[in-house]
């Protein structure tokens, strides 16, 4: 038996429809992923706990026998924050979409879907996840990195002392360097209870985030305003 390549990305497919699971696995394995399939929600957490090395990505169906997908999403994110999660759902209501993402999912795909789309989304989510984990290096050797387990941002190894909201804002923007986020998009990541807040609240948190970064790097501007649109994370060349 050939041992799996340790460099191969591992994917856990949690799906109770065997035809869908097999189709997705075939396409992922054909694209170089190593897949494992579980068809019951109650089996997911025990399987993950038993693994010496957790999968890099979980494809998680929303509607499952036993423990449902949203509950599993929350548990996985709390226990293993570095594992990426893509939710698979036939329920397209906006509340379900937002709730899944707010519980910690990195993306969602609505059924019916193309298996090629799943492969593309999996690659994109893993790229973003690794970009967030890797230190960003400036020309002068300064580094900014995220400690996902401790919810800390480190500038040259110094803890910036961010609040949970400030950490979330920085994390979201660091996952997509150069992407412009509207205030509304950032608000979706700031508050899990979907409270109604003013867009000025985002501006206030960004201002505090910038101030904390400036205490370590007074000459750098990595959180930039785009007039009339929003904000972006732009590490220096």
TrEMBL record:
Residues 10-126 form the Response regulatory domain. GO terms for biological process: regulation of DNA-templated transcription. GO terms for molecular function: phosphorelay response regulator activity; transcription cis-regulatory region binding. The modification 4-aspartylphosphate is found at residue 61. Pfam families: Response_reg, Trans_reg_C. Residues 133-235 bind DNA. Keywords: DNA-binding, Phosphoprotein, Transcription, Transcription regulation, Two-component regulatory system. GO terms for cellular component: cytosol; protein-DNA complex. InterPro entries: CheY-like_superfamily, OmpR/PhoB-type_DNA-bd, Sig_transdc_resp-reg_C-effctor, Sig_transdc_resp-reg_receiver, WalR-like, WH-like_DNA-bd_sf. It comes from the Bacteria. Residues 133-235 form the OmpR/PhoB-type domain. The keyword RNA-binding does not apply. This is Two-component system response regulator BaeR. The lineage of its organism: Bacteria, Pseudomonadati, Pseudomonadota, Gammaproteobacteria, Oceanospirillales.
């Amino acid at each position: 038996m050939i041992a799996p390549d340790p460099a191969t990305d591992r994917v856990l497919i949690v799906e109770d429809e065997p035809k869908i699971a097999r189709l997705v696995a075939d396409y992922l394995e054909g694209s170089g992923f190593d897949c494992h399939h579980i068809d019951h929600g109650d089996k997911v957490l025990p399987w993950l706990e038993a693994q010496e090395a957790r999968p890099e990505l979980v494809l998680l169906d929303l509607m499952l026998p036993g423990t449902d997908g949203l509950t599993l999403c929350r548990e996985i994110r709390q226990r293993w924050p570095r594992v990426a999660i893509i939710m698979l759902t036939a329920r397209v209501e906006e509340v379900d979409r937002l709730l899944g993402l707010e519980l910690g999912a990195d993306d969602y795909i609505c059924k019916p879907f193309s298996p090629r789309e799943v492969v593309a989304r999996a690659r994109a989510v893993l790229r973003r996840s690794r970009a967030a984990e890797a230190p960003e290096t400036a020309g002068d050797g300064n580094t900014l990195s995220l400690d996902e387990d401790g919810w800390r941002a480190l500038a040259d190894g110094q803890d910036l002392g961010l609040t949970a909201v400030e950490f979330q804002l920085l994390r979201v923007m660091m996952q997509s360097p150069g992407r412009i986020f509207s205030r509304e998009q950032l608000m979706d990541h700031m508050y899990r209870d979907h409270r109604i807040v003013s867009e000025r609240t985002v501006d206030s948190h960004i201002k505090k985030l910038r101030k904390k970064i400036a205490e370590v790097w007074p000459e750098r501007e990595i959180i930039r305003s785009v007039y009339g649109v929003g904000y972006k994370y732009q590490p220096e060349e």
